[in-house]
Amino acid sequence: MEPLPTAFLLVVAGLLMGLSVLLSRASGRFGLPVAMLFLGIGMAAGSDGPGGIEFSDYGFAFRLGTVALVLILFDGGLNTPLAAVRAAIRPASLLATVGVVATAAILALAAHLVFGFSWPVALLLGAIVSSTDAAAVFSVLRGSGLHLKRRVGTTLELESGLNDPMAVILTMALTQNLLQGEGLGWRLLLDAVVQMVVGGGLGLALGWGGRQLLKRLRLQAAGLYPVMTLALAFLAFGLPTLFHGSGFLSVYVVGVLLGNETLRYRTGLLRVHDALAWLSQVAMFLVLGLLVYPEQLLEVAWVGLGLSLFLAFIARPVAVLLCLLPFRFPAGEILYTGWVGLRGAVPIILATFPVLAGAQGAQAIFNIVFFIVVVNGFIPGATVPWVTRKLGLAANVPEPPPAVLEIASTQLLNGELSAFYIDAASATAGARISELPFPPESAAMLIVRGLELLAPKGDTVLQAGDHVYVFSRSEDLPFLRLMFGQREDE
Amino acid sequence: MRISEFLSPQAVIADMQARTKPEVLRELSAALVRAHPQLQEEKLVEVLREREKLGSTGIGEGVAIPHGKLPGMTQLLATFGVSREGLDFEAIDGKPTHLFFALVAPENSAGVHLKALARISRLFKNPRFRTAILEAPTAADIHALIVQEDARP
């Protein structure tokens, strides 16, 4: 009788979520994506593990997973600078369309020829595991204290933001094909184009409208602004999907458009959505872990292992090579992009779709996909830090300062704070504060030196390794960047 | 501080050949060595490259001010080059860069170095001055234009 069941549910959820957060630090040290850890905790709590929780509601998992993906993609968009989009849009969109189709096709070929799946099942398998998850790559790198060189990083990130729509479109179409035995043809291609155009178009429109709305909106409580952006994210997914457009593409586009606008209460908004994205990650992987029966996974172990290795060593690298050849990327970067195509939750969520549709053999597909994603978390997943160092793609990014200074405001202001790292090569290293030719409306606000906070006085000398916070008008930023170097928050 | 104190007419390139960012740094360094033979080209390229790693010195509107610190120098030295076609210097506004004012300072002279950076970037904010430089045919004309603009109150 209520409220006991609710209380019990919250205790279980609280324990699982709390445990996931507590253990997340440890996973970074072993180079394991945190997602795999959450998944493992879910599996341990599930029906075959010590937890023994019976959970096999695919419909709930699909819905939760979709909401989680919407929040994760929206947050990803918010944090994607327009400069990164400009720099990587061409290779990334090719990878996200042609690359996805090529990966799916090559993997399907192996599934059909080597493992004897019928063509419809083989193609569906390929489509389901065809999209990548850059967040997995970055979380592994961050755990080892590494940062990626800019172009590779932005290409991988933008690719993963853009490639879910194609994987979704293919999976939906191929599931229909499996159910009704319709022939595949040009209609699928046309369908994909329509979905992209409608999704992209509505995304641009909603993003533009959202910008205008957020610029004019004045609310009493700061806490209501994130509610508004959350509403926009839901609309950005829901509306296009109702009109046969790609909701995932739309929500990412809206995120990028809003993230690159000077919004009221911006830092607060970003923090809320960052937390929502993390909550989504944890909840989604826990539920997916609960959903699977690990004992059934053993039955598909050989097929899963074989396909997973084929995906890592052949399908993904070949597809990437095809897409990146026209862009004159150095060989090392092509190799790297091909290798670190980590899979995340998207394939598992997509694999619930044929199960929900009641397609024949869907349960086996789900188990195989699950197995592929788990193996993928280790190969290539666990090798990512090592490969990054080996190929010389780690960038020298200074450690972020232990203290962060920022202006929180629900009003639009006429100036901003920016953080600069003082490198030995910067003209400002060794300069006294009084020697810095600041424009009239700018000044140094705070120096962070190790764990010490210093008040910038005229005779304070800037040392290499310092972080300096500068207040300025935005039109003076180019000169500040000339003096100091790039901003830390870019 | 007068720009003519550290930019000699011999260090001006009226028509740069470089097509890429690394080529620009090399061509500017070579020009500086021609004007001041006591300098070493390799070391110049290296310090300019080190600074570019922190973020491009292309400040937008077609202007870049590559700079660096070189141990063993006794005074600030500069070179100026014009790329007629313009090229991708990863400038912050994403536009092609045409005007390159490279500056090398002795170590432990941050004050002078920064003052020069401020002076040069203020000079090139003037759009008419930028156009005039792009229209000047020879290195001597360009040098004269810079000295003249610098002398204006």
Q: What report would you give on this structure?
A:
The complex is a heterodimer of chains A (490) and B (153). Chain A has 490 residues and is mainly α. Chain A folds into 2 domains: 21-390, Na+/H+ antiporter like fold, CATH 1.20.1530; 416-483, 2-Layer Sandwich (Alpha-Beta Plaits), CATH 3.30.70.1450. Helices cover 64% and strands 4% of the residues of chain A. In chain A, strands 1-4-2-3 form a 4-stranded antiparallel sheet, covered by helices on one side. In chain A, β2 and β3 (452-454) form a beta hairpin. In chain A, α1 (4-29) crosses α6 and α5 (119-128) runs antiparallel to α7. Chain A is globular and about 75 Å long. Chain B contains 5 helices and 6 strands. In chain B, α1 packs across α2. The two termini of chain B are 13 Å apart. The model of chain B has no long low-confidence stretch (mean pLDDT 91). Chains A and B meet through α18 of A and α2, β4 and α3 of B.
Please bin the fraction of helical residues of chain B: 40-55%
The portion of residues forming beta strands of chain A comes to under 5%
The strands making up the biggest β-sheet of chain A line up spatially as 1-4-2-3
Instruction: Based on Cα principal axes, name the global outline of chain B.
Output: globular
Total count of strands of chain A: 4
Q: Give the N-to-C terminal Cα separation of chain A.
A: 53 Å
Number of helices of chain A: 18
Identify the quaternary structure here.
heterodimer
Shape of chain A: globular
What portion of the residues of chain B fall into strands of 2 or more residues?
A: 15-25%
Query: What is the terminal separation of chain B in angstroms?
Result: 13 Å
Structural class of chain B: alpha/beta
Number of helical segments with 4 or more residues of chain B? 5
The CATH class label of the largest domain in chain A is Mainly Alpha
Largest protein interface?
A: A-B, 24 and 26 residues
Cα Rg of chain B:
14 Å
Q: Helical content of chain A, roughly? A: 55-70%
Largest sheet of chain B: 6 strands, mixed
Radius of gyration of chain A: 24 Å
